[in-house]
Amino acid sequence: MAAKPLLTQDLLIQEAAKFAELESTHGEPTLFGVTDGKAVGTYLEQKFVSHLTRGYTFDAGSSASGIDIPSLDVDIKVTSVRQPQSSCPYRSARQKIYGLGYHLIVFVYEKADDPKARTARLDIRHTIFVDRERTADFQMTRGLRQIVDNDGNIDDIIAFLQDKNLLVDEIEAQNIAEAVLQNPPLEGYLTISNALQWRLQYSRAIAQAGEVAGITRVR
Question: Could you report the per-residue pLDDT of 172-193, keeping only the tens digit for each?
Answer without folding.
Answer: 999 999 999 999 999 999 999 9
